[in-house]
Amino acid sequence: MRHRVVPFLALSAFFVSPADAQRALAIADYALPETGAVAVAVRQGVPDEGAFAALDQRSGGALRRAVRTAGFLGDRGTVLNLPGVGPYDQVLLVGTGSDPVTPRLLEDVGGLVGQAGVLSAAPEITLLWPEAGMPTAGAHLALGASLGQYTFRQYKTPKPAAPVLGQGTLTVRVVDAGAASAAWRSDWAHVAEGVRFARDLKTEPGNVIYPETFVERTREAFEGVRGVSIEVVDEARMRELGMGAMLSVGVGSAQPPKLLLVRYRGAGDAAPVAFVGKGITFDSGGISIKPADNMWRMKHDMAGAAAATGAVLALAKRGARVNAIAVAALAENMPDGEAARPGDVVRTLGGLTFENLNTDAEGRIVLVDAIAYVQRQDKPSMLIDIATLTGSQVTAVGDEYGGLFSRDDALVADLVAAGAASGEELWRLPLHPSYAKDLESPIADLRNVGSGGRAGAGLGAHFIGAWVDPAVRWAHIDMASMAWRDDAPLPTVPLGASAYGVRLFDRFVRDTIEAPKRAD
Ligand code: BES
Ligand code: ZN
Ligand code: ZN
Q: What are the extents of the domains in the chain?
């Protein structure tokens, strides 16, 4: 019998199958299958209980023997993948450790099964969850499975002789299938769709996704969704309005910049929350050009815009009781004869001028016109901007957290809590008033970079904050380290585009705007 203990940190090594198409997800009543592929969660120490005990009995004790031989302990986040156990083609054991059952834990279990399912030839995988405690458990397992089995292989030519992996169905079997499928269909499936939308846009290369196609994809995704209106500010309108910042970043590209606003109205006349995302569809650095190594990664420099738009897609599709606006500041940052020069002075929509000392610090530039515009048009009560803004954020906190900057302690607490609950975590970083000094310019109101070797992520945050109306509750999220999963997958985030921000914003809206202190 082949077996291996695969902690989720090592699963990436097996991500090689060319076969594509995701498994269809189903939620059904709890029943133990007689044969086929089954997945089951086990607690610390793999106690003889629940579905594990039943499967072990049906396999004549072979399952327990395999667990012992593999040294599998049920630690949280570990997977034991056993092909051929008694009457079963495959048994997947997912450790949950000693942690209490939360939506996040269930999503992680589903995610690990989803990831393993991508590598399995079983036509059907049954995920068993016999516990009755949480009626929506099945929906969270399905959400995790959907996120975990994400792949993007549109441009791979199928190899006819290759084994068919990762196709068929994944059925989640739970005690209350009725409640779980209702929660999945009306609610969590839309969160999964928001994530998929953002991942696809980030994975697509810069020759496919540029401002215009970002807008097209958004229009397609929101087609027929109730309560939504879409506005696009094009280059000509930007000139009329005086959006010098957006124009200065887009001018070096053959693809004109666009400011996209998706307004969702689900709460009458309440002042909206605005999610403003950096949408640089490719960041070459412009005239302050980046080194060639890894420059390709900058196709995902629109991750903030994808997160904001994906989150509002989820909110609108699930009919959230909120007024929310996604603002996507879309431009391509390219070097060219017409491109912005280091030293150029730019007048922005908000009225302030800045000196562009480094054209590679372009994210903050597009964001300030986007912020000024949405403040003027929509008078949001709260504004959260999100951006792959600085390498400095990556250095400061690594890929466990997004960097959170805000002077509003209550907003910080709510966002940090939403991060912990959703699994898209945040860590607060300082926004010291002294940063103003570092951004002083001799000839303009500000300059877009500091003197180097300083608090780079905080300086970026400070620059953006200079355009925020003091009456608006504001937070800035630097997600540079979180946009692309590189070394090790997380249960619900396979390698590649993460869609960080979608689940964070959805959770934030659930817990702090829709129904403070609700349970799931
Ligand atoms: N898009 C980059 C930041 C980035 C770095 C995102 C790594 C994702 C991963 C941004 O536009 C940039 O180039 N920032 C500069 C700012 C500097 C010139 C002040 C940086 O961080 O080096
Ligand atoms: Zn840049
Ligand atoms: Zn950038």
A: 25-189, 206-519
